[in-house]
Amino acid sequence: MFKNNRRNKLIALFVAIAALAIFVNIPFLPKYIESPGTSPNLKPVVSIKGHSDKFKGKFMFTTVSESQASIASYVVAKFNPHQTIESISDVTGNQDQQSYINLQNVYMESAINNAIYNAFHYAKKDVYLKYRGIYVLAVDSKSNFYNQIKAGDSIVSLNGHKFKSSAQFRNYVKSKKIGSKMTLTVYRNKKKIQITRKLYKLAGTNQAGIGIILSDDNQVSTKIPIDVNPGEVGGPSAGLMFSLQIYGQLTQQNIRHSQNIAGTGTIDENGNVGEIGGIDKKIIAARDAGAKYFLAPYVKPTKEVLKYEDQHMTNYQLAVKTAKKYAPNMKVIPVTSFSDALNALEKIK
């Protein structure tokens, strides 16, 4: 009897351990967990020949960590105010994993090019930007153009109109009505192809769209050798902070006034700063890295804008709210452009 009881206890223990292993390790396939990431120091990221960063303090770009959910991490995220649970389709835009990674890398490359161009331009150093066209990076599976447009297509025209940037292209499409028939002309494998379909309603908006993710193919060249290596990080949101680090090194000015300054925001070739995702988590990452100031993209919070914003707050509003609760010693600074950021930095002396 004693041996049987002991054996039963061992079996029960084994079953419990096995169940725990399954609970911890089985992926919850349709979900991602988004958490505060890191705030890397930009000093080792940017290398400019003859222009090192000798000043105290640091500029930091901020990241959001994305991981596929296990049952255990899903439960933990339910009770963690700094984590959110997202569907895989919402995170990847219905792309497969490799396509999503490739897209983030393209975004990062574009962010670096725009940052270099703005920093050199404002520093009055020789820089050249050559526009080579608009490329299709991905197509929404719900789009009427799905399976017709391919990633890698080069856009020639839309309804006969030609464009000088992807922003110009998007604005043209937004001016049209949902259901409008459009003819898109693209180059693919050195052949010109025409595709005619109707515009559909973009998810979460009342706007017409084709359902494609675009990238400007800009080639940047400088006389002063420069290398920007962010490692495995992807996406467009580090553009603003890259540009400030590059500008500071080029001018050899202590534009951060020896402070630890984190931030986020896209930047285009005209120096405009754009909003990003996950700014509440980036505030936490900046706090944990010891940032005293945080540069956040600013847009005017109109009713129409707030309707589509994350948590119905602009980047700046959400950043201020998060900092007030979790990082009260860190000041959030709103910025709309590269020049606006430089002016804001002058005021932190």
UniProtKB/TrEMBL annotation:
Coiled coil: none annotated. Residues 130-196 form the PDZ domain. This is PDZ domain-containing protein. InterPro entries: Lon_proteolytic, Lon_Prtase, PDZ. It comes from Apilactobacillus waqarii. Residues 218-298 form the Lon proteolytic domain.
